[in-house]
């Protein structure tokens, strides 16, 4: 009798996608569910980007592109890295992929040998640990606390390093906590890393523009880090292009060339129309997408205000992305409407069933005391959702 590989049997299903499926199921039963579980802007892709895609179709962009992306797209990415991050890359250091998720999978597959350890400050983005495991690496979670704004300290980093440590992966602004590492904080981490030259860094900057504090800093721009950092970015979040599936990296050329070789066997490169549209997106001044960032900022303030009116939610102030990550452990051990709440998964399920609001358990992000609430939803929906949550908890 045949069975599936150990690889897939050991992999967890994406918790965010599982929650979305459960919410869909309840909607099909006629329930009015407000979905705050997905990491997806509720805006449409801006018209000037859509027009570039239509133009590309009419210009007969229909053949395979170079595996690592069109040369003029790579030029646009190089200009963007210089403009926004003060990073200088050459074309052989850039690889365009089918979403930042594939960029991350490429990196894992080309960098990690079985048993290599990858440090993940927790909470981390839900897919990091499973992508690392696909490459037979070992995720090493470093729990951070809400008191420290969910950021890893240099002491915690130092303590997590072993002879097997190969990489550190983190996102800033962070999904799910919204935390943004300052220059001083990154410099302090870099100081530790400089003592351990074998460790490489993945700096996932996909929420770069959705930053309300201003001042996004790239790890590769910190002294001594350029040659050992892979900068990951993409257009899904800031440009409301999740379904277009374009992500990219800037990396030391030996790593970038390996990613190019890897995806040459797996995808042959990203969709050609989406690549053409991405040139237009990246060449536009950030002011063209500012209306979405301003809207997320307003909603962040609204959600923080409404959450502060509910007993039992402890929150930090997220400075970027579009999530809040409240600690709800005050409810553990309580019985609400006959349902015992033992952990964050119970709590998230309770909100789904009793408040008709879909959130995601923090367990999926490596923090079992929190839930993630996405505020990429209309003000009206957010107000209604928080009202229902408040009512379900009295
Ligand atoms: N990295 C982080 C931190 C994310 O939140 C996401 C999407 O949720 C991704 C990467 C993947 O983005 P993409 O749509 O480009 O694959």
TrEMBL record:
Its cofactor is pyridoxal 5'-phosphate. Pfam families: Aminotran_1_2. InterPro entries: Aminotransferase_I/II_large, AspAT/PAT-like, NHTrfase_class1_PyrdxlP-BS, PyrdxlP-dep_Trfase, PyrdxlP-dep_Trfase_major, PyrdxlP-dep_Trfase_small. Keywords: Aminotransferase, Pyridoxal phosphate, Transferase. GO terms for molecular function: pyridoxal phosphate binding; transaminase activity. One of its GO terms (biological process) is amino acid metabolic process. Its EC number is 2.6.1.-. CDD domains: AAT_like (cd00609). The keyword Cell membrane does not apply. Residues 31-389 form the Aminotransferase class I/classII large domain. Belongs to the class-I pyridoxal-phosphate-dependent aminotransferase family. PANTHER family: ASPARTATE AMINOTRANSFERASE. This is Aminotransferase.
